Amino acid sequence: MANKTTITNLINTNLADSSTILASEHREVEIALLNELFPTEYRELHEQGIPDELEITTPELSNLFYDISFVKRGNTVYINGYVRNKTGAIFSGKVLNIDTTEYNTKTNRQYYASCSNGTNLEIQNSSIYITEIANGGHAYFSLTYQTND
Predict the structure, then answer these.
(1) Alpha carbon of 26 to those of 6, 20, 23, 36, 43: distances in Å?
(2) Which helix (H) or strand (E) holds 93?
(3) Sequence-separated (6 or more) residues with CB below 8 Å from residue 16
(4) Average pLDDT over residues 103-122
(5) Residue 118, phi-psi category: left (phi > 0), alpha (psi -120 to 50), beta (remainder)
(6) Distance CA 53, CA 37 (A)
(7) What is the pLDDT of residues 86-95, one digit of tens each?
(8) Are the C-beta atoms of residues 133 and 83 closer than 8 Å to each other?
(9) What is the Cβ-side half-sphere exposure of residue 23, based on CA atoms within 13 angstroms?
(10) Which of these, 106, 105, 108, 86, lies nearest to 95 by C-alpha position?
């Protein structure tokens, strides 16, 4: 996945006015554009009894589970999934960190979503928080947020 700056640099470098453009250079630009139009969906899975499948997140607690899909188009990220609490008590706080820079939230922005259990989810400084989830409870959500260009 590239960002606007990366694609602009590829265009200016590989497709420069006075250059003899190689097919490989042209393909590199086109592939970067195609990857933005048809992005890869990342399924972040941290669930009890199943090996972790984590590429862009890090769980905050070992017994706070989640299954979340991330799809990034341009500077917009679409996420949906659930959080499940097995801490032994009501939980309120940070669920996970978004570690991959391309998926980090826009600087100084907060994003909110209502969850299926009536609680709220918040993304702040590239971390996801939940206001309250009962022990054994699930909170399903869907949210869109912006990244830096």
Answers:
(1) 14, 11, 5, 16, 31
(2) strand 91-98
(3) none
(4) 93
(5) left
(6) 24
(7) 999 999 999 9
(8) yes
(9) 0
(10) 86
Residue 93 Cα distances to 21, 57, 105, 114, 127, angstroms = 52, 16, 18, 15, 10
Q: How many residues does the chain have?
A: 149
| Residue that has been written with the tokens 């990034």 in this structure | 72
Q: What is the mean pLDDT of the chain?
A: 89
Q: What is the pTM of this model?
A: 0.81
pLDDT computed for residue 86 by the predictor: 94
Gap between the Cα atoms of 143 and 127, Å rounded: 13
Q: In degrees, to the nearest 5, what angle opens at C-alpha 99 toward C-alphas 29 and 36? A: 25
Sheet containing 41-46: order of strands? 41-46, 64-73, 76-85, 138-146
d(CA 120, CA 89): 18
Q: Which of 142, 112, 145, 118 is nearest to 132 (CA)?
A: 118
